[in-house]
């Protein structure tokens, strides 16, 4: 079982309290969601890795970025060798994931296996490493569904991931397409015995429904506002309103913030908002609306670390020493 205060990164184990700066809890550094041949929904490890590395290095230097949770899983073009190279070159620890995205990206074993076999497959990856790489995932995610109720294959995957999370001690992050179906996801996951505080429900900033956000948080789950800067889906003005409402309702300790960079056109060097939009644009606006440094630190460091460690509190908020010792996997 994963030690509750130790994170598994693509370059080795890292003590959670050694992460002394902000965390991006839902990003993609290498990705391939191209189903039509257009090549847009891609972060190619050869073509785009230098841009990704440069952005992360800059965020470490300017904002103290201390950890990235990379939620590219099975069927999404996962490449942990590339993640390790990016992590080392940027000087930013990276947590890799395992699981299955939503139905259009399911790999063949989802159709041919039952819940028990799928859960066992995930447990093996967590315990033995991804393929022959030896790199062990540090989170289940992004486990996907679309619509208000998961499709049968998505429900199977959610149940399998919940069982694997329970067996390994890891936490679980979901993909709720356009923010829909989060309550149904949580019901399935907790129905398998996974505590709500080990669950992060994804893309809730795309759902303009404060009541759903409050209910998810009240049940103990983390509520991800993780597409910050994706104005074509939702305006940051609306995100700020929804975030403020959830914080004012007393649930600031259940919010995670990230940008979900998921195609090369979102990279700064290609005219996009980049991984730093959260720190350079969104959080200054949140501060101007009245958020103080302690609240920002809660949302960007303490909450994601508490999520990853299954509820374990971490040390004080300060800039991380990027030369902290890292043990091998």
Question: How are the strands of the biggest sheet laid out side by side?
Answer: 8-9-10-11-12-13
Helix content: 25-40%
Helix/strand order: EEEEEHEHEEHHEHEHEHEHEHH
Structural class: alpha/beta
Give a count of the beta strands, DSSP E runs of length 2 or more.
13
Q: Note the total helix count.
A: 10
Q: Please, how many domains?
A: 1
| Arithmetic mean pLDDT | 94
Shape: globular
Rg: 18 Å
The CATH homologous superfamily is termed Metal-dependent hydrolases
CATH topology: TIM Barrel
What's the topology here?
Blueprint: E1 6-9, E2 12-15, E3 23-27, E4 31-32, E5 42-43, H1 49-63, E6 67-70, H2 80-90, E7 94-95, E8 97-98, H3 109-112, H4 115-128, E9 139-145, H5 152-168, E10 172-176, H6 182-191, E11 199-201, H7 210-218, E12 222-225, H8 236-251, E13 255-257, H9 277-288, H10 293-308
Parallel strand pairs: 3-6, 6-7, 8-9, 9-10, 10-11, 11-12, 12-13
Antiparallel strand pairs: 1-2, 4-5
Helix pairs in contact: 1-2, 4-5, 5-6, 7-8
Provide a descriptive summary of the structure in words.
With 329 residues, the chain is an alpha/beta fold. It contains ten helices and 13 strands. The protein has helices spanning 49-63, 80-90, 109-112, 115-128, 152-168, 182-191, 210-218, 236-251, 277-288, 293-308, and strands spanning 6-9, 12-15, 23-27, 31-32, 42-43, 67-70, 94-95, 97-98, 139-145, 172-176, 199-201, 222-225, 255-257. The strands form four sheets. The protein has a six-stranded parallel β-sheet with strand order 8-9-10-11-12-13. Helix 2 (80-90) links the parallel strand 6 (67-70) and strand 7 (94-95). The chain is globular and about 50 Å long.
């Amino acid at each position: 079982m994963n030690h509750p205060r130790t994170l598994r990164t693509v370059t080795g184990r890292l003590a959670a309290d050694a992460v002394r700066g902000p965390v991006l809890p839902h990003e993609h550094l290498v990705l391939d969601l191209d189903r039509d041949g257009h090549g847009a929904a891609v972060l190619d490890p050869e073509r785009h890795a230098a841009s990704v590395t440069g952005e992360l290095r800059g965020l470490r230097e300017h904002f103290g970025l201390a950890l990235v949770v990379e939620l590219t899983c099975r069927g999404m073009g996962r490449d942990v060798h590339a993640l390790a190279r990016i992590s080392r070159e940027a000087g930013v620890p990276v947590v890799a994931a395992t699981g299955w995205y939503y139905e259009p990206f399911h790999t063949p074993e989802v159709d041919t296996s039952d819940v028990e076999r799928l859960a066992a497959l995930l447990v093996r990856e967590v315990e033995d490493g991804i393929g022959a790489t030896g790199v062990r995932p540090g989170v289940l995610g992004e486990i996907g569904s679309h619509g208000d109720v998961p499709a049968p294959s998505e429900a199977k995957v959610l149940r399998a991931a919940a069982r694997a999370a329970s067996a390994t001690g890891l936490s679980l992050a979901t993909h709720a397409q356009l923010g829909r179906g989060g309550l149904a996801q949580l019901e399935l996951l907790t129905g398998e015995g996974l505590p709500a505080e080990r669950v992060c429900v994804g893309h809730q900033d795309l759902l303009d429904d404060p009541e759903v956000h409050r209910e998810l948080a009240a049940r103990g789950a983390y509520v991800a506002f993780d597409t910050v800067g994706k104005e074509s889906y939702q305006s940051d003005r609306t995100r700020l309103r929804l975030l403020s409402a959830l914080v004012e309702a007393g649930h600031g300790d259940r919010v995670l913030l990230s940008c979900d960079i998921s195609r090369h056109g979102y990279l700064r060097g290609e005219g996009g908002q980049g991984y730093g939009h959260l720190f350079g644009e969104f959080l200054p606006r949140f501060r101007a609306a009245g958020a103080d440094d302690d609240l920002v630190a809660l949302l960007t460091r303490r909450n994601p670390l508490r999520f990853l460690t299954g509820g374990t509190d971490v040390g004080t908020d300060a800039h991380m020493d990027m030369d902290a010792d890292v043990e091998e996997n």
